[in-house]
Every structure is written in C-alpha cells, then in structure tokens.
Amino acid sequence: MRANILIVLAAAGALASTTALAAEGKLVLYTSQPNTDAQQTIDAFKALYPKVEVSFVRDGTPRVMAKLRAEIEAGSPQADVLLIADSVTMEGLKQEGRLLAHDAADVSAYPAGIHDPQKMWFSTKLITTGIVYNSKAALKPTSWTDLTKPEVKNLLAMPSPLNSGAALIHTMTLAGNLPGGWRYYEQLRDNGALAAGGNGDILRQVATGEKLYGMIVDFMPIREKAKGAPVEFVFPREGVSAVGEPVAILKSTKNPEAAKAFVDFLISREGQALALRQGYVAAHPDVALPAGYPTRNAIKLMPFDAAQALAGEAAARKRFSAIFE
C-alpha cells in the first residue's frame, strides 16, 4: 500500500513538473486591478514560472472590455487572460463562447458557488459592499434597513448601478434578497438617498461629513480608518453582496498552457495568500482576513447567480433608473 501511495505521489509530482515546464512563452493579461496589485501578481507568478514573459493592460472594467470588444470585432483579440471586477461580465463572455474551460483547475478547497460550475471563470477575491458611516453619526447602523430610518434622511450616498458594474451587482443582490425587494430602493429614495459617483467619492463624502452614511466596498473605509479617517465600516446582519474579481482564459489565447498556469496560481493557496497581503479578502475559505476585518464566519454573503443577473441586467438598470429619475 505504501509503495502504491509513493507511486501516485511521484506521478503527481511529475505531472506538476510537466505543467510548469510547459508554461513558457508570452502571456498577455487584461486587468482592472490597480497597477501596483497587477505588477505584484505578475512578479509572484513569474517567481514560479520564470520562462513566461507577462505583459498587461490595465484600466477599469468597462474600458478593458471596450478594448477587448474592439479587438474581437477586428478579429484579433490580444489578451490571453482576463482578470476583471465582476462575474456578470465573465458570464456574458462565457455565453458568447469566448472563454476556455480549465477543466483541470483544482477548486476542491472552495465552497460551491464561488467559481463557474463549468470552470470557465474563477473568483480570486471577495470584495463585499456594506455600510460606511462617519464616526460622529448618532445612529450606528447594523442593518440595511437602518438606512431607511429618519435619522439617515438626506444623509446617505451610494454608487449608481447605472455607472458601475459592481454597484449593479450590489443593487441586484439586495433587491433579490431583502424582504421588500425593489421596495427597499424606493424607501431609500423617499429617505433622500443620493445615487451618484464612485466608491472613492462616497468615502470622501462620509469622511468629510458631507454625508454621514454610504454604501461602499469594504477595503476602502477599513484601510482609511487605519490611517485615522473618522469612518466605521459595517457588514450588515442580513448579509452583503460581493464581487469576486474573477479570472478567465480567452478561447482565442495563443498560450493556453501559460494561461492555465496563471489561473492555477491565482486560485492556489499561495496566490490567495498574495491577495491577503495586498489587503483583500481572499476567496479561499482557509486564508485569513486582513487587519481590520472581523472573522470570516462573521461575514454573511448573500446568494448571487451571475447567469440570472446577466439575464436581468437591463431590466434592473431600467427599474433603478425609474426609481431614482
């Protein structure tokens, strides 16, 4: 029995070595990561795969997708790997037949629902949206419904889902999980909520006291609080939405072996530890959370179906626009 186990382990090691040796040549990454994060990710990958020459194009997800779409239209997509903000965009590419499945990707450590079931895209982080409030605010919210209370009237700012994919996912998640559905957003409107700007602007408004409450991605206020900003961040008790900064391989890739190695690195324990060092919540359930966060089991994720969201995206934008027109 021991001999058989050793043979299996040796075969696995040989397979890993073969994969590593096959990973060479050029690899082009299109990403919405901040430049520093993108470079750190590439440097860590190249430490393991020195024969792969990686270049990257970095911009916000809408601009990255506009560039990729133009290249696809011209018949010459340049990207091998796509690492962007949200799974809905990835789901659209999947349904168009633009993505390459990575059937051998090891996702055994992850719970169901984190990655695409057909292994065409893989979440690398869990960037949640919760509530930020100014530390001087009288009401200390613990629930999404707290934002509809009189104490919050005209004091809430949130990103608009008409301008942000992550904000759209957040809006659809809340509307799909809170008991009142879209009625919740009608209550926010009636309470004077302002839906405009991005996360950075929301943080500025709350930190300066221009507004006392906001909906925002977790890491921004948590980092700023550590620097002395007068803000607090709350993971509401009903749960939070999350975007997974998924990675996927384009079917048109010129280097599938290197692309698969890059995906394997990002979802490996080592790649997930890098996400932690960069200050994010790793998607891997066994990786610790950054300083300033509660324990992982204190963060409840609301259910979200990327394929269902893709189908309802246009209707959700229209519904939100009608509420906040």
From TrEMBL:
Keywords: Periplasm, Signal. GO terms for biological process: thiamine transport. Transmembrane segments: none annotated. The keyword Signal applies. It comes from the Bacteria. Residues 1-22 form the signal peptide. It holds the Pfam family SBP_bac_1. GO terms for molecular function: thiamine binding; thiamine pyrophosphate binding. The keyword Signal applies. GO terms for cellular component: outer membrane-bounded periplasmic space. This is Iron(III) transport system substrate-binding protein. It comes from Bosea psychrotolerans.
